Amino acid sequence: MNIKYSFVLLLAFVQLTVMAQTKGPGIEFKEVYFDFGDIKQGAVVEHVFQFTNTGDSTLLIQKAYSSCGCTIPSFPKEGIAPGQSGQITVKFNSEGKMGLNNKIITILTNTKTEVPGRLSIKVNVLPK
Questions:
Q1: According to the model, what pLDDT value does residue 2 have?
Q2: CATH number of the domain enclosing 44
């Protein structure tokens, strides 16, 4: 009886280990924060955030949006294969802005994480 119980536990462990290795898509950014420094009011600046699919299936970016209409992210619409890289370009329009600005860009993907990805930018807008 003890041998059967041990065998069942061993099979369950092996099955869980195999299931854990099938992790799906993953996303890893080279950086998640960028500081533009000082810019003149009215300037439009952009930064490219590089990422890699660290998983074992195709990564899909479903949506990318920012905390303000002055910050526009653009992202690949096609899937990113395992091990491949992509980029999200973030443009900040300083028209009508002044002083220190911190903006958050939220990234929704098909990864298994329940927390969306977040990128952030900082810029100090000076008078014209």
A1: 60
A2: 2.60.40.10
